[in-house]
């Protein structure tokens, strides 16, 4: 009989936690293990989760995000591993009750996993007394892309599919944002800069693509972008189409206030599209300025970096080659697979 393992996360479409959870499931799916993937939204309470664990004879859990998934663990008595999701350790906006829940989850976890040394350090600062006696595995996210290179999907298809066939994309210069539409991701941070760049060169367009994770903020984004020329916002599309558009972009842009380890950045580096990203702890842990990508502090600084990228073909070539080499060396999915199998052995070993 295979060992049933529950992977618990908030599985919103297009989110980083979902991508991570699905990749872990693939890593663990073999004849000896049966990984079950559950969205936290299917449980109304900790009791619901406990009943599911008992009914499905779950041996252990892998939980992604100390609060979003961790808040359902009150009634769980089996061992679990906690994967820090990013905002649980990097953001300071949690209230006292939420922080108490996360501290309890961190204390009870048998194994803790961080995507980077930066995230590990942030967790150690946030919970110093709890983590003093605990080991944190540092396991960067593996990057898996089924196909890298031209496909039949293009920006023209994106506009046509959304009733905007009057926008002609031939010879346009696309900067692309890929990520959830919510305040911490701050997709509006650069839109006035892009509107100015479009006014100076109407070939330059800024395209925002991602799932809506905050309805009120998304309404604000739609209203603001609708008033500016050269800025377009679209709902989430399939991952393979996103990869095709990344490949056709001059750069992927990340403007997050705080970041864990953005999958879109890693995938762009693998695809060999330059990344221009806001300088925060998470982004700076994977992007070395002027080596594997470009970091910016503020909108004017972004404009300077973007123009430098457009004007210097040698810089573009060096950035993409270095970024590809960095991903191959540091984000190998086979290494990630081995780590999670070791973690399962720790969780299921006899007490």
From TrEMBL:
GO molecular function: glycosyltransferase activity
Keyword Plastid: no
Keyword Signal assigned: no
Listed Pfam families: Glycos_transf_1
Glycosyl transferase family domain span: 168-325
Alphabetical keyword list: Glycosyltransferase, Transferase
Top-level taxon in the UniProt lineage: Eukaryota
Protein name: Glycosyl transferase family 1 domain-containing protein
Organism: Clytia hemisphaerica
């Amino acid at each position: 009989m295979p060992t049933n393992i529950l992977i618990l996360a908030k599985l919103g479409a297009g989110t980083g936690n979902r991508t991570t959870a699905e990749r872990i499931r693939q890593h663990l799916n073999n004849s000896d293990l049966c990984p079950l993937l559950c969205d936290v939204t299917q449980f109304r309470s900790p009791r619901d989760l406990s009943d599911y664990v008992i009914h499905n004879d779950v041996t252990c859990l892998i939980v992604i995000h100390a609060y979003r998934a961790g808040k359902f663990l009150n009634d769980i008595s089996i061992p679990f591993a906690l994967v820090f999701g990013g905002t649980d350790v990097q953001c300071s906006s949690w209230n006292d009750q939420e922080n108490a829940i996360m501290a309890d989850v961190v204390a009870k976890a048998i194994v803790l996993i961080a995507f980077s040394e930066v995230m590990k350090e942030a967790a150690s600062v946030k919970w110093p007394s709890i983590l003093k006696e605990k080991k944190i595995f540092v396991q960067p996210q593996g990057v898996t892309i089924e196909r890298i290179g031209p496909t039949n999907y293009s920006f023209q298809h994106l506009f046509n599919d959304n009733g905007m066939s009057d926008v002609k994309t031939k010879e346009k210069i696309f900067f692309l944002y890929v990520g959830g539409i919510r305040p911490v991701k701050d997709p509006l941070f650069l839109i006035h800069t892009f509107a100015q760049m479009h006014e100076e060169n109407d070939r330059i367009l800024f395209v925002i693509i991602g799932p809506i994770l905050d309805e009120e903020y998304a309404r604000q984004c739609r209203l603001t972008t609708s008033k500016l020329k050269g800025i377009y916002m679209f709902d989430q599309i399939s991952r393979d189409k996103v990869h095709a558009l990344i490949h056709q972009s001059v750069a992927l842009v990340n403007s997050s206030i705080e970041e864990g380890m953005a999958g879109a950045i890693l995938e762009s580096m693998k695809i060999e599209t330059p990344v221009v990203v806001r300088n925060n702890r998470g982004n700076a842990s994977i992007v070395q300025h002027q080596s594997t990508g470009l970091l910016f502090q503020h909108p004017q600084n972004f404009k300077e970096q973007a123009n430098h990228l457009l004007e210097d073909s040698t810089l573009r070539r060096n950035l993409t080659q270095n970024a590809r080499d960095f991903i191959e060396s540091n984000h190998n999915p086979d290494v990630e697979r081995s780590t999670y199998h070791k973690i399962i052995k720790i969780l299921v070993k006899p007490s």
